[in-house]
């Protein structure tokens, strides 16, 4: 009974955070509600016995990735989003499609006679077993993901670094905006 | 105490549907990106729930479901790094984050 109550509690927090992500106009509020969703999902993983996955969820997702998001929002000084019209196709076709898909999935899941239960705490998702699988059966995919991460880091550095000429022009215009009389002095220097 | 697998799948489906809905109705490019992360999280939950399900049925390879969660997380991290760098590059040239005003791929 306690497990069911915990599942419903964290599930409700999870859904509330997801809906709050949708309705908040400001991206920083959306980011913080996404942190709530990820933290309560970690609690759900704990209920399923996947303790290592829960720890990684908190460290990597709610920690590293969300810090990246919030850092970008702060860096770009993103304000509240403007409500523009958007694509009509997305409104007319997309939202009914989502609703129909969600209702179909829910109908199937609720009405299928599935008597299998997930037993809690009986699942040894310990770091030892996971490390054995990761470095034994899944060794090649694991090594390939390291290459993927390396390429992603290189791509991020290349994309986010600005060319030198653009940087100097940007600096000049900012100086001109801030103090027009200093531009001449800056060029002489 | 046991919880039916359907409950976890239902929660996972709700999270995925919220992600798709946010992808469609949000206009801020960072918020759209966060909707994608929400979809990935919903999929991860169903991976872990199915892993527990098959383990309860006695399948010895059930733990593979948790391994796939790690791979999804790795791909999500790589995607977040590259995607946010692209967002920074777009913002530098367009000075907007609204997707309706970013309709050309050319920087």
Low-confidence stretches of chain B: none
Molecular shape of chain A: extended
Structural class of chain A: mainly alpha
- Compute the average pLDDT of chain B: 87
Rough shape of chain B? Answer: elongated
Distance between the termini of chain B: 56 Å
**Assembly category:** heterodimer
- Main sheet characteristics of chain A: none
Beta-strand portion of chain B reads under 5%
Biggest interface and its residues per chain? Answer: A-B, 88 and 72 residues
| Alpha plus pi helix count of chain A | 8
CATH class of the largest domain in chain A: Mainly Alpha
- Radius of gyration of chain B, taken over Cα atoms and rounded to an integer in Å: 18 Å
The total beta strand count of chain A reads: 1
- Number of H/I helices of chain B: 3
The helix content of chain B is: over 70%
CATH C-level label of chain B: Mainly Alpha
Determine the CATH topology of the largest domain in chain A.
Four Helix Bundle (Hemerythrin (Met), subunit A)
The overall pLDDT average of chain A reads 81
SS elements, strand count of chain B? 1
CATH architecture verdict of chain B: Orthogonal Bundle
